[in-house]
DNA sequence: CGGTCCGTTGACTCACTTCAACAGTAGTGG
DNA sequence: CCACTACTGTTGAAGTGAGTCAACGGACCG
């Protein structure tokens, strides 16, 4: 039964893996049959804690898992968001001691897979090992893009960039890039882009008034993608969601199904 | 001849790999005999450019290699620094299209290894594949720590954090943590921590006046490690330079040789 | 009905940026 | 040998973007 529940989301993850690294039919079957356990968490809850030794990795079925760090004075900074079909801590398969903890930002469902299963799959199939490695590299590249956005962007630009990224990542699943669920509060957004919740609120209003995007409580509606893209200095190449890696092109049409 | 020149720095890299993932004698011999070509670059030069398809990976023999991104208005943000013994773009072994370019910040020497050599080594030895994977994960965790520092730290704290990190990374080689070469200008530091060069200058003065650290043109001298650590909110656990992973402990003595 | 969380707005403050000037050093060419 | 340029570090003064503090309304919930 857990297998059935995991099947759909394993297929989503597999699809994402294959965008970056080809896999044989046999390898695909191995991934599709990874056994796991469904875990539900409600609202803002710790999923794995700092310093803990994890025994499993967590595939996001629904909701959002956020990785974060904290400063000495208790300020929180998210370093990654994981949505449906993302493996939140694949790196834990090889480095199980948690160096940045995970939290949910809303009611969230996970499909947890024993890390030994991932490890043995990687040990037995070099191309699976490569696919997992690529997944971690892609995540690292997303982190690098966040660094550029936060280090050098204005408040408006940082928020626009985050919304663009989420639009693309949700869009590749739903086929619709201009509307997606926003499972984050304005405080969460602030913790992701290094701003206070108050200023996030002001900038979201500014974005709305500019006509580029409406970011409401439950969902985001993009009115002018090209404007939003320019506001965020966003180029989706780094997400590797396209077969044709399109760093060069400025306006990328997502492959709509 | 190139082999001889690469030998020492390959041993350094190997040592770092083994801190995170054990390797058999045979695997170690494979790494130690990776053939490569020495390449020298002077001052601030592009090493690989955005969008390029790389054919090799670059091990840093001397100097500094910096990975960076750029905003639309031309501002630069470094996302990683690589020093002697670091593999600057191991991820290129599996994802050769450059999503963030590399630059030297000073006269720098590289040992360049064909990416196919890395790929076949990883394909033939699962434990080597795991070691390479771990290296990329560690780099990603360093990036996450930069995000926390830049997103939530004050100007003083960001610079202190960077100096702490460099002290530990150089210290594990030299055996001396309190003095290391500073192969960066104040403008480089600004581009790493998201500040202007002018403000970096002021904060370096503030750090000096606080008695924690003296950051001069060519080298850094740490006067009060514990103070600097607190100023930067720094905990070296994420660097994985110790056998005993010591996230919990607050003052970590580096393993001095 | 009261409590809590989230979003919203205004007034004030301050950390960092911007602009500008200058000194020291190194490299370059006449 | 000395101009000339370029880069780096340094400092001051003024401007501003984002933080801080505070108050309020609405939605949800027990």
Provide the CATH superfamily of the largest domain in chain A.
Jelly Rolls
**How many runs of DSSP E, i.e. beta strands of chain A?**
10
**DSSP helix fraction of chain A:** 40-55%
Instruction: Please summarize the sheet with the most strands of chain A.
Output: 4 strands, antiparallel
> What is the class of the largest domain in chain A in the CATH system?
Mainly Beta
Instruction: Indicate the mean pLDDT of chain A.
Output: 92
Shape of chain A: globular
Alpha carbon gyration radius of chain A? 18 Å
What distance separates the N and C termini of chain A?
29 Å
CATH architecture assignment name of the largest domain in chain A: Sandwich
Structural notes for this entry:
The structure is a homodimer of 257-residue chains. With 257 residues, chain A is α+β, with helices and mostly antiparallel strands. Helix content of chain A is 44%, strand content 19%. Chain A folds into two domains: 2-145, Jelly Rolls (Sandwich), CATH 2.60.120; 153-239, Arc Repressor Mutant, subunit A (Orthogonal Bundle). Chain A contains eight helices and ten strands. Chain A has a four-stranded antiparallel β-sheet. A three-stranded antiparallel β-sheet of chain A has the order 1-7-3. The radius of gyration of chain A is 18 Å and the shape is globular. Residues 243-257 of chain A have low confidence and may be disordered. Chain A binds a DNA duplex (30 and 30 nucleotides) through residues 154-155, 185-187, 195-199, 201-202, 204-205, 217. Chains A, B: It comes from Sphingomonas citri. Chains A, B: Residues 153-226 form the HTH crp-type domain. Chains A, B: Pfam families: HTH_Crp_2 (PF13545).
């Amino acid at each position: 039964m857990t297998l059935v529940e995991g099947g759909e989301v394993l297929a989503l993850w597999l699809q994402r893996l294959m965008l970056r690294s080809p896999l044989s039919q046999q390898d695909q079957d191995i991934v599709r049959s990874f056994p796991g356990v469904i875990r539900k968490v409600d609202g803002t809850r710790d999923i794995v804690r700092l310093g803990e030794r994890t025994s499993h990795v967590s595939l996001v079925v629904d909701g959002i898992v956020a990785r974060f760090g904290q400063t000495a004075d208790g300020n929180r900074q998210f370093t990654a968001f994981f949505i449906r079909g993302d493996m939140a801590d694949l790196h834990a398969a090889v480095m199980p001691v948690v160096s940045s903890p995970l939290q949910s930002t809303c009611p969230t469902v996970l499909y947890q897979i024993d890390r030994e299963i991932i490890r043995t799959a990687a040990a037995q199939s070099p191309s699976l090992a490569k696919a997992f490695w690529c997944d971690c590299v892609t995540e690292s590249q997303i982190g690098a893009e966040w660094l550029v956005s936060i280090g050098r962007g204005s408040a408006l630009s940082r928020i626009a960039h985050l919304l663009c990224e989420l639009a693309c990542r949700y869009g590749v699943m739903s086929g619709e890039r201009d509307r997606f669920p926003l499972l984050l509060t304005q405080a969460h957004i602030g913790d992701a882009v290094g701003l206070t919740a108050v200023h996030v609120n002001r900038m979201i209003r500014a974005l709305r008034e500019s006509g580029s995007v409406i970011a409401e409580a439950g969902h985001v509606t993009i009115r002018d993608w090209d404007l939003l893209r320019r506001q965020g200095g966003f180029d989706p190449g780094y997400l590797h969601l396209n077969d044709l890696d399109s760093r060069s092109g400025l306006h990328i049409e997502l492959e709509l199904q």
